[in-house]
Design a protein that fits this description.
The complex is a heterodimer of chains A (275) and B (243). Chain A is α/β, with parallel strands linked by helices. Chain A is 44% helix and 22% strand. Chain B has a single domain, classed as MetI-like fold (Orthogonal Bundle), CATH 1.10.3720. Chain B is built from 10 helices and no strands. The longest helix of chain B has 37 residues. Classes of the chains: A alpha/beta (275), B mainly alpha (243). At the A-B interface, helix 1, strand 2 and helix 8 of A face helix 2, helix 5, helix 6 and helix 9 of B.
Chain lengths: 275, 243
């Protein structure tokens, strides 16, 4: 009766879903695990239609922190990665999960905080000094705490400054994405480390602003890494190759350069053409 | 710091934005609303086709461990979506046991996760409804020589209007949750992005008014679906009474 009918309908739906998902894989689609900054800033929304138009390959973006994106690649759940933490990338390639690391583009990290700047880091030239000033004045600092590229760089700066704030009361380890961390930083009047593109695209700045920038430790290199077909046989390497080639080509690099937020360039292409 | 005036402005902006989005039939909005509905309604269909018979069976069949099963079922109603999301993720991952199906980061994966989330809810609530009816019917049905299967079907049929509530409770949970669909769907634009994951995304971009507007639309959507269900159930019961 009713239940039998609904069971039949349910079966039909499952079959339909399975057919849909297989026919979708016949279509030319690749999965890209990327860092949140590239997706949330709108970069991919700008780039991918151009690539799709040129090659008829659809790119599905899963935005996660660099740590998680690498884990997705390691499990074989994505075909290609765009991430920003060179040491993790190198070990991803060295362990055989990543095929090759291609430099793609760069921007930089910045320290944002309340305009009142109680720790007085405005105009400071070195990130380690800015961090020391935040620590010595015990101003609140909001950390991603999620193994993202930004979080790993932050940890390196604390280490270089010979500080371990992880157990202090002014250090908030959030375990959150960039946007959530910025929302909390703004609401609680704390300092935070972020990438320039995420900050520029962030629409809840209130009284927060960039207080420190320009140190070379804050240089932020993005790379594109195809997942190795030898580890994961299902990876669509032919399509991924077209994608990386396009990103590294003049067309792709120019498109990256043309992307703007509020009239400002956010990512600076620096692909190594010799590879 | 966010003052009260600020918050009030945000809320007003959100309301106006919600109205704008609805009245202009925003294409992006329609896309995520229809994906939300089709994912959650599919999950409800699966949950109902398992949960209703299960609830009725737990009422009618007396077996060893029945009481424990009921306790377990009730406890499963409180499963955290993130936990289910992670479990389904690990099962469907290419490195997991069902990896060959290639379902991770697809709408199907989202349907599976939500179906697991709400089947216990539908089953536990329908068991309760069936139990109440069974206590009234049992003697009469047994004296007529009805088999347990007959009794199950009779009870489900007669309780069908109250069972709508059980199904709607499941739907409400499915359409509102974000933890599971975010993990197994990946929030891919034009593919697995639904209402709740969009709200999370826009919040993280600092677009608080837009996030609120989408939240308001989600509430309206839930009211419409529940309204349709309740009107249908009502008209069914009225047409029976008139017969």
């Amino acid at each position: 009766m009713g239940t039998i009918l609904s069971t039949v309908i349910n079966r039909l739906i499952l079959i339909a879903a399975i057919i849909c998902s297989t026919s979708a894989s016949a279509e030319k689609v690749i999965k890209l695990a990327s860092t949140t900054s590239t997706e949330n800033s709108g970069l991919f929304k700008f780039l991918l239609p151009k690539f799709e138009k040129a090659t008829k390959i659809k790119v599905r973006v899963i935005a996660a922190g660099t740590g998680q994106a690498i884990r997705i690649g390691r499990n074989g759940d994505a075909d290609v990665l765009v991430v920003h933490h060179p040491p993790s990338e190198e070990s991803f390639v060295a362990e055989g999960f990543g095929l090759k690391r291609h430099k793609l583009m760069y921007n930089d990290l910045v320290i944002v905080g309340p305009k009142t700047d109680s720790a007085k880091i405005r105009g400071v030239e070195e990130a380690t000094i800015a961090f020391s000033k935040i620590a010595s004045s015990m101003q609140l600092f909001a950390s991603r705490g999620d193994d993202s590229g930004t979080h790993l760089v932050e940890k390196e700066i604390w280490k270089k400054a010979r500080l371990s704030p992880q157990r202090t009361r002014w250090y908030l380890s959030l375990g959150a994405g960039m946007g959530s961390t910025l929302n909390i930083a703004v609401a609680m009047d704390t300092y935070a480390l972020t990438d320039r593109a995420s900050w520029a695209a962030f629409r809840n700045k209130k009284n927060h602003t960039i207080l420190m920038e320009g140190d070379k430790t804050l240089f932020n290199q993005y790379s594109v890494i195809p997942v190795n077909k030898k580890k994961h046989g299902h990876v669509k390497y032919d399509l991924v190759k077209k994608f990386t080639n396009w990103l590294l080509s003049n067309d792709g690099q120019n498109a990256i350069r043309d992307f703007r937020i509020d009239g400002k360039q956010m990512f600076f292409p620096n692909a190594n053409r010799e590879q | 710091m966010a003052g009260t005036e600020d918050t009030a402005n945000n809320f007003l902006d959100a309301l106006l934005l919600a109205l704008d989005l609805i009245t202009e039939f925003n294409a992006g909005l329609i896309e995520i609303v229809s994906l939300s509905l089709s994912v959650s309604l599919s999950a409800v269909l699966i949950a109902a086709s398992i949960g209703l018979p299960l609830g009725a069976a737990l009422t009618v069949y007396n077996f060893r461990g029945r009481q424990i099963s009921i306790v377990l079922l009730n406890a499963l109603m409180g499963l955290p979506p993130v936990f289910i999301g992670l479990t389904v993720y690990l099962l469907l991952s290419r490195s997991g046991p069902l990896g060959a199906l290639d379902l991770l980061f697809t709408p199907t994966a989202m349907i599976i996760a939500q179906a697991i989330l709400i089947t216990p809810i539908v089953a536990a609530l329908s068991r309760q409804t069936c139990q109440a009816l069974y206590e009234i019917y049992e003697e009469q049905l047994r004296s007529l020589g009805a088999t347990p299967l007959n009794i199950m079907l009779t009870i489900l049929w007669d309780a069908r209007i109250s069972l709508v509530t059980a199904i709607m409770a499941g739907f409400g949970r499915a359409i509102a949750e974000v933890g599971a669909v975010f993990i197994v769907g990946g929030n891919i634009e034009h593919f697995t992005r639904v209402m709740t994951t969009t709200i999370a995304l826009e919040t993280s971009r600092g677009n608080l008014a837009l996030a609120m507007a989408l939240g308001i639309i989600l509430v309206l959507l839930s009211i419409v679906v529940n309204g349709v269900a309740s009107v249908t159930a009502d008209s069914v019961s009225r047409s029976r009474a008139n017969r």
